[in-house]
Design brief:
This protein has 6 helices and 4 strands, in the order ααβαβαβαβα. With about 140 residues, it is of the alpha+beta class. A two-stranded antiparallel sheet has the order 1-2. Helix 5 links the parallel strand 3 and strand 4. The chain is globular.
Length: about 140
């Protein structure tokens, strides 16, 4: 929901500014590595062993589309009036936890909930303690059905 923090890391600072040109001229150029899940090595091993997962750095066109989608979503956020529940792991290195909190704060919904999870990464429904996340989702849905 936000890539601001990630956009400021390493070469990403430069790529954000020249990304559009690279995306047009060399859309398949591999430009940004995906951080490894060091918090849960067993989940990283599953990811690394899955032939259906992309194991290469993010391509230029994909990176620019991620940025475009996040910016467009930010513009539309105040008009989002539907109920929703959002979780984010505070140790997430793929996306910005602060972005999810900002999204929830900016959303126009009167029924919105943000749950920040300390010591959690990015794959919340697979990480240790996922039962609590799943139970919270079920509880939230049950309260609205």
């Amino acid at each position: 929901l936000a890539l601001d923090a990630i956009s400021k890391r390493g070469w990403n600072r430069v790529l954000v500014h020249v990304g559009r040109a690279i995306s047009i001229l060399a859309p398949k150029l591999k430009v940004a590595r995906t951080p490894k899940n060091t918090l849960h090595p067993h989940l990283q091993a599953l990811w690394d062993g899955d032939p259906l997962c992309w194991h290469e750095p993010t391509r230029a066109r994909n990176g620019m589309e991620y940025l475009r989608a996040v910016r467009e979503l930010a513009e539309r956020t105040p008009g989002m009036a539907f109920p929703f529940l959002a979780f984010h792991g505070e140790a997430d290195t793929l996306t910005d936890p602060g972005g999810t909190a900002a999204f929830v704060a900016a959303a126009g919904s009167a029924d919105k909930t943000f749950v920040s999870l300390p010591d959690r990464w990015h794959i919340l429904v697979r990480e240790p303690g996922n039962e609590a996340v799943q139970a919270r989702i079920i509880q939230w849905c049950d309260a609205r059905l």
